[in-house]
Amino acid sequence: MAQPSDKARLQNIDRQRGQILSHPLARGLNIEEIAKFLEQLPQQRFPSTIYAERGPQPLIQPRGGTPLFESQLKLTQELSNAGADFIPLTIDSCTRHNQYDTAEQLLRRSEEEGKAYLNGYPLVCHGFELTRQLYVGLNKPVSLRHGTPDARLLVEIAIASGIAEIEGGGLCYCLPYSEGFPLDRALLYWQYVDRVCALYSTPGRPIHRESFGPLSATLVPPVIAVSVEIIEALLAAEQGVQSFAVSFGQTGSFVQDVATARVLRKLCRHYLDEFGFESVQLRLVYHQWMGQFPMQRERAAALIAGSALVASLIDADKIVVKTVDEALGVPRSEVNAEAVDVVRYVLRTFTTPEVVNSPTIELEAELIESEVRSLMKVIFNLSGDVFWESVYRAFQLGYIDLPFSPHADNANKLITMRDANRSIRIADTGLVPISYADAATERRLLDSRSDRLEKTYRQMLVDISLMI
């Protein structure tokens, strides 16, 4: 049995780091120079600063990444001028899969033809010196958004570029994005990332980490989403990370969103404190609908506005926004800027009460909390020399089971559908260790659905297509 502890902090980081920094694309990286560069950045470039200063409404962050430096600079300026509180740097899929040679070739082709042949910014190929120029004069934090199981080189270059928020984690950036990447390796590589973030952190200027809570974004039950976020926070805290954000994606059920936010905050704080990580600053991030978007721009705008209101109701620290062109492909920079403006308008115009509660929300929160505590108790008692090994063991046993994960080793025995109130329910627990009573409650709530169809897959298709 191995429970979270700062004694699990990586001891051989210098040797491993030397190997990473010897990569040809790590050209010019100098740890001492980077530390001095970070010291000279405006205080507002660090997320902990603007989180501490935020008012009653969530901070706003769009997504956005283009292959060419000039177009990324234009996007950065447009999003900042539109009022974005966080500036994104979304990485291309070749870099995400460590295919740097392919990314380099497509970058050169994009430069020669003036056309985007990559679906994001190839940071590793551009390098930190050029990327620093994107943010000259910027007084807002930059957020690295990617989806990389092995992000060691990427994160080294990102921090060297002045990026002080790093999204991802061993579970949340492997299970939803990779078919064959070994999960144990991803967990180890993200321990490296967390340790590097901690080493570059100073009091008042911590490198902020954020987990990706939507996961596969398809019928993920709260017990899995919340448990994964708790695990990611604990693994980061073990390595010395002092500023961390947990997140989750809009479920499609107002009741379940409010209850999930409440339990996620409560239990993540509880477990961090229980294992001696009381000093970790904890934030909550809400992702607007991550599933299929409607083709009609009017309906997409309504969905964006509605989810902005939910973010305010749950008192999210930050909301990650979508655009009306979401169903059409990679959004144009001006459309990204418009989305920021729309969300800002909604948050400013529709004030919300400080506390939203009802008997239905209370019961939902109690159910989620009970399920999460059951699962975490089992994980904490699994064999392993360090906590990440227990987490990996839980995955091997099917205790952590992500619906619709492309990962070849995911158990895929957990079956979920929506109930009459559109909340995500567990139809078959598979191997996930929740109590018999909680499983029975899930089935009873699911049975309240009036449009019961004969085929389970037909039910799932209806539930997945909820917003369109």
Question: Which terms summarize this structure?
Answer:
two-stranded antiparallel sheet; 468 residues; single chain; TIM Barrel; 10 strands; 47% helix; alpha/beta; 8-stranded parallel beta sheet; 18 helices
Brief summary:
This protein has 468 residues and is α/β, with parallel strands linked by helices.
Architecture overview:
This protein has 468 residues and is an alpha/beta fold. The chain has one domain (6-349): TIM Barrel (Alpha-Beta Barrel), CATH 3.20.20.240. It is 47% helix and 9% strand. The chain has 18 helices and ten strands. The protein has helices at residues 13-21, 31-40, 47-53, 69-82, 93-96, 100-113, 123-126, 128-132, 152-160, 183-200, 222-238, 254-274, 297-313, 333-349, 359-380, 387-396, 436-446, 456-464, and strands spanning 59-61, 87-90, 142-145, 165-167, 208-210, 243-249, 281-287, 318-320, 415-418, 424-428. An eight-stranded parallel sheet has the order 1-8-7-6-5-4-3-2, sandwiched between helices. Strands 9-10 form a two-stranded antiparallel ribbon. The radius of gyration is 21 Å and the shape is globular. 53% of the residues are buried.
